[in-house]
Amino acid sequence: MSGITPANGATDSMAVVAPNLESTPSIIAAHAPQVKDDDESMSEDDKPLMKKQQRQQNNKRVGGGTSSSEDEKPLNKRPRASNGAANKKRRVVDSDSDESDAGPSVKKEAEPTPKTNGTSKPRSSTTRKPVIPSSDSELSEDEKPLAKRATANGNGTAKAKPKPNTKAAKKAPSSDEDESPSEDSESSEDEKPLAKKKAPAKPRQSTSSAKATPKSKVKAEPESEDDDDVPLAKGKAKGQAKPAAKDKKPVIKKEKKVKEEEDEEDKYKWWEQEALGDGEVKWTTFEHNAVLFPPPYVPLPKNVKMKYDGVALTLPPESEEVAGFFGAMIETDHAQDAKFRENFFKDFKAMLEQYPPKENVKVKSLDKCDFKPMFEHFEREKEKKKAMTKEEKKAIKEAKDKMEAPYLFCVVDGRKEKVGNFRAEPPGLFRGRGEHPKKGTLKHRLCPEDIIINIGKDAPVPVPNIPGKWKGIQHDNTVTWLAHWKENVNGNAKYVFLSAGSSWKGQSDRAKFEKARELIKHVDKIRKDYTEDLKSKVMADRQRATALYFIDRLALRAGNEKGEDEADTVGCCSLRYEHVTLSPPNTVVFDFLGKDSMRFFQEVQVDAQVFKNIKLFKAEPKKKGDDLFDRLTTTLLNKHLNSMMPGLTAKVFRTYNASWTFQKQLKHTPKNGTVAEKIAAYNTANRDVAILCNHQKSVSKTWDVSKTKHEDKIRALKYQRMKLRLQLFSLDPKIKKKRPDLAEDESDMDEEFCERHEKELLEKALDTAQKKFDKDNVKLEEEGEKKKDKKDLEERLKEIKEEFKELKKERKSRKVEPRRAATEEKLLEQIQKMDERIATAKVQLEDRDKLKDVALGTSKINYIDPRITVAWAKKYDVPLEKLFSKTLREKFPWAEAEADKGWIF
DNA sequence: AATGTAACTTAGGATTCTTGTT
DNA sequence: AACAAGAATCCTAAGTTACATT
């Protein structure tokens, strides 16, 4: 698919299999909670239990499961259109003040409660149902499948291409009418949606340079007493130079000999110490080599030139490099993208202005640019590289490793630590995701003058590997970065940090999970409180409670405001009117682009009060483009959370719910299964979490093809099975009676397939014979013997063809002569084996299908407490390396050290 | 309160490496 | 031995959060 994206996120990946049309929102399977329609009933709700109860129900419903109660049945989906209508009539009323609590709604239009289920509609097969996080208490219950909200992810996955939604409206709201919300009477005036929270959109221009200098700490390069500019060679010894004066953490004995020191270092168990927080001193001595700049641009060979309107252009290296950036991408989707092209061309033209082609041609249109020659040159280079001998490759690799060696590690308080992204980002074209307004923009080449380094006062100042002086050198020991610069495209800061396996990262990572575990202790109360607040008279509180409900139940991100020059994506607090649609009685349809422009599309059954609230938040003067939660910001939300539990913020819920869900789902692990079965259960739990967090991956372009291949493989197995069966029947016609199950034909075995399959088999057989013949001859020749005659080969081929004619006959007659030595027992046994193989292959295919658009890695790396995995591995006796790759194990040494099989999150 | 800055975590896609097949 | 599929790693974009400044 070319870069063209369907206008409406909806259809997107057509190439891909996903059959279901999104237009038909799949049904939610939800169960129907008993909706309470009026607030009165709500009061009930206040009781703690209630909420749980509901949740349980949700969980239960696992997919369409068998459970009997009617509410287990999927409730039909209501097309938006229709519900619109439905709504219409009731709408206004809703906002009514209701008695006791501000709760809106008048009971009048009582929603039809659950009964609706009756009409069940089949759920689309691809529907995914996220597992919904629940509180402990319900554990037992949740052993049951949880279904809960079924998402209609239609093909879900899709990365929907965003529909540009003008955000113009958003901020620019009709501020004035702020007041008007009319009588929605909800209550105090603050109930009225406030029109816009922000008025004038202020373009924030990133003026780079200028006041750039960050904290005063930065010293200008010159004055830094970098007397000894020597890069630190090999870290070691030197750190000690200045004994950490008052080191907070005991620096390990520095006197050791190098070798021992290394060991020591390996053994440093940072997790046995206190984690340090924000703003605290993180180090006493700090040595490193900052960043490694990429090699300078090497001009292309003289004969490689782009063309403009047919004429080859001789470009100076500066502009040639930029042309090359695009040239390398002409076959990618980016090169077809209008915005990308526009931005690229603007920068390219500017570059040409300064570094024009020798030919004195004015480049005016990107369409007339032909980068093919460059592209082909790059392809050739790639080929060349691939074709190099092992030795050549090795030599290159060695040279590269040598160059990088000094940057791989740094020394913190005398300990060697691995550096993460030490390579300065090379120049190129900005690949923003989704509808990023800046995509295609030229990202400049960095030089030392762009980079500020942070390093120990007494550490030698590293010498850049290209000419130039650092922009600044600072010695801030309350931060953990080695280098930092501002990128020109968006004006964003970039940092060089230590690797994921370093103690700094490990400490904060562990602290993150500990914080999430702490939430376990508070979550019941928090849930109870926000459930209560759903009915608050204070609009801001009600919005906050509703948002929190989403964050907790749907694992939404906080959702900060974004700027005009960024992709239009949202999170919870920044949801807008058009992102949620109501479908009575209690379904909310979410459809928006989240982080990385990944589409979040789910139909969710919510508490009646939540449903009412959304209706209220979308009430009258509000329209498309307005914030759903106009009284809420992430700051407000986090402030509130912080008051409920120190350090609590919105993101903690994602971590908590992810880990909690994972642990819960792992309970489905078969105790006596094989290792493979256990791992499958592990992966299933992992998948549940990924779905909860909406972690998607794009479906590979060749997925379709590979799927067909797998299907054909299964059909081939079925074909074999059919042959076995037919033999069996020839042997003993009565078997059909005895084993009616065997009398049944394999599915998918139509004539057309058989013919095609047999043809393929024939070709393969011929090919094999040919190869064998060639090989034999080579061998014979080597041994000095006479080669076989070509006639032999031809004869053999003819034989094969004859054999296959047999197959054709069999196909027509549907009779197969038993092969020699075939007996009834043997055949039955073979059929049984075949059945197993078919079953296995089918399961595999299904698994592949389920994972085709779900990314498991992100949750494993960032959300699931690694100790859960370690404990599980120990408990079920599965080798950890089957669950964690090498880098993950390096990232989580602390988990292996502290979790035994009884550990729980 | 709105903006802006700083520092750090989280994220999917591209690239490279490994492994299983033919 | 060649290749292709999948897993792992690399890369850097895109979030969150706290705090400073206007």
TrEMBL record:
**Skewed-composition ranges (Acidic residues):** 175-189
At the top level of its lineage, which domain of life is listed?
Eukaryota
Which species is listed as the source?
A: Kwoniella mangroviensis CBS 10435
Any keyword Coiled coil? yes
Protein name per Swiss-Prot or TrEMBL: DNA topoisomerase I
Q: What is the lineage of its organism?
A: Eukaryota, Fungi, Dikarya, Basidiomycota, Agaricomycotina
Q: Which residues form a coiled coil?
A: 783-844
Q: Which UniProt keywords apply?
A: Coiled coil, DNA-binding, Isomerase, Topoisomerase
What's any GO biological process attached to this entry? chromatin remodeling
Q: Where is the active site?
A: 863
